[in-house]
Amino acid sequence: MATATPAYERVKVFSAAIRIFHWLRALSIVILTASGFYISWPYLVGADTTDVLVQGWIRYAHLVCGFILCAVTLVRAYLYFFSKSDIERRSFQDVKNYRSWIIQLKSYFWIGGLEHKGVYGPLQYVTYLAVTLLAVFMCVTGLTLYANVYHQGMGGALWGAASWVTEAFGGLAWVRILHHYVTWAFIIFLVIHIYMAVWMGIRFKHNAVDAIVSGYDYHPKHTD
Ligand code: HEM
């Protein structure tokens, strides 16, 4: 009995390193957002309590995840430029091509298909670049806040750079306020990002959430 040929072919899009760092970054940002808002509004214990451990443990979690985010941001920048697969770098060709923008924007209104040179569409690429720059901003402001509390070890080593950043922002209060405000950008991004990833899977039957779990994407098979 003849077996039916599959209608889809499997294509490797994300390496194990890219998948691991994606989920590490996602987890650290979720914990940073929750712990960061707690640091600014410690609602679990009364104002006149002597129990300072809750705040201490939450700050500890924030700092551990903060340093994870700093490391992942650096490693991901390296992988973008130097990984063996150029599937991410290739996406930049679509950013420079106005036709790709029109194709992607039309696809959001259910008009036409989707063609990419790399793994991301142009709007997706620009959004991820903006989120990466915001992560760099959070790392710089976070490390500045850190160096102002811990004056020895790494905090001491960062003191010179942290003083420069503090002055450039017009004082430590502004560093803290902007570190707080930009947290909202991550919350807005997360909601849209999850919505779009699920929507892509439903609309195009590929480039969906499973690709960043398994590493594989599925494309309609060309029989010609
Ligand atoms: C997406 C990333 C991050 C988010 C969403 C985030 C969020 C926040 C928020 C909302 C606060 C409270 C600010 C306030 O007092 O109103 C905070 C404080 C702080 N964050 Fe972050 N943060 C992030 C990354 C980092 C990084 C990378 C570091 C550095 C390793 C860091 C270190 C700190 C420090 C030291 C404080 C002050 C803690 C205190 O006052 O006790 N943060 N963060």
UniProtKB/TrEMBL annotation:
Keywords: Cell membrane, Electron transport, Heme, Iron, Membrane, Metal-binding, Transmembrane, Transmembrane helix, Transport. The chain crosses the membrane at residues 20-40, 60-81, 125-149, 181-202. Its main location: membrane. Residues 14-215 form the Cytochrome b561 bacterial/Ni-hydrogenase domain. It comes from the Bacteria. It is a multi-pass membrane protein. This is Ni/Fe-hydrogenase, b-type cytochrome subunit. It comes from Shewanella electrica. The gene is cybH.
